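Input chain follows. Return structure tokens only.
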Amino acid sequence: MTDDPQDRFLDALLHRAFSEGRADDDHRVAAALARIDRRSAWPRRFVSRALPTLAAAGLAAVALIFATGPATLSAQEVVERSMARAALLRDRAYDVRIETRFGREVEGELFVRGNERIVLHFETPRGSLWAGYDGEEAWVVPRRPRAPVLVSSDPARIESWLAERGPAHPFLQVDALLERLRNYDLQDLSSGQHLVVLGQRNATSEERGPDTLELTARAGTGEIESLTLKWERRGPLRRVELRLRDEAPRADGFYGHATHHDPGRRVLRR
């Protein structure tokens, strides 16, 4: 759980207000949380904004009087709902599939707990590559068994460490991908029990990133089922896909580096 008392208060308040069995409550929580810029440890969203206790209580009260029936959501609202859902402190595991422009295919796993914990795993012919952030330290466990484990208090180091190991092992961060999608030209392709939003990078945008980003989420909750990134012409990657595998809880120690290497391995702090 987060150590921020205001975050704990808000999580507890929303849980109490919306956990009594009403089928449509998840979308109320999502709609409420979508208006909150929650604190994140990640480099793209370092700015911390305090949420006063009274404002949190007021927000929860407003959420309680939302209409009960499902409404037709715009593409932007679908993205907002999924962002709010992803921020909840729950464990999720995604299967990852990466295709490079040179025909190489790489499979991996992404584990997250809200926006505060992350573990990436790639199994390669040279061994297992692990990387993550446990809320306090960023770390990478290189494939070579004799290479030291790299640890830093700066979460931005993960991205640079993985970049040094080639484009086939990109740093994947769910909340950052959704933030990017918010700034794309959005098209709603939803049908039935699935919310589907296709985002296309604006042709005049100078921001680097995939040409298209597609989100598929559950209609009832906004829970992300898949994220698919595609590059048409530039860059070393052609396609990256994240697909939800399970939501099983994991021990707190899972997000630390010690769980993913032999106890005697050298640790280098930078």
